[in-house]
Amino acid sequence: MAASSWSRKLDYVYLAFFVIHIPVMLVVDLAGFYPTSVRPTFTLAIRDYYIDTYRDRFFIDPPLWFKGFMLLELVYHLPLSLWAIPAILRDDPLVPLQLLVFALETAVSTLTCTLEMLSWKGYSLEEQSRLCALYVPYLVLAIVMGGDMFVRLRTTLLTKSKMQ
């Protein structure tokens, strides 16, 4: 069944997200995984700028569970993101299934980070607002993507069951 024009418009939003998400992961989020001998120096400068600008404790002194989220980003987000770009462009039938799983994991991990960040003491409302401006859109996108992918899968499954 061909995708509706509305779902294809959302696909272009998801496509833009993944195109942006890959360099952000490689330059900021996953820079700590690079061996020192091959770590590009500009990643340190960007990471230092991020820390100086946002005072994001997850990048200053990350708790163990956050390090687990970063590992998940390395072994799941990065490969999925690399797969998703061409898959969205070719309207691969596995996109709804793959992006539903991605959206659910992303929503749970981002909500966890957002709630933890809001509990940090010693941050002004302005500092928390700046951090929320980074985390909340990511959370909203994950929720929208999850709902969209759920509806697509539900529609496909119900249509298939009616044909039998």
Automatic annotation (TrEMBL):
Pfam families (alphabetical): EBP
Keyword Transmembrane helix: yes
UniProt KW Cytoplasm keyword: no
Domain EXPERA residues, every copy: 10-146
InterPro entries (UniProt xref): EXPERA, Sigma-2_receptor-like, Sigma2_recept
Keyword vocabulary terms for this entry: Endoplasmic reticulum, Membrane, Transmembrane, Transmembrane helix
Subcellular location per the Swiss-Prot or TrEMBL entry: Endoplasmic reticulum membrane
Transmembrane intervals: 12-34, 135-153
Family label: Belongs to the TMEM97/sigma-2 receptor family.
Name under which the protein is recorded: Efficient mitochondria targeting-associated protein 19
Upper taxonomic lineage: Eukaryota, Fungi, Dikarya, Ascomycota, Pezizomycotina
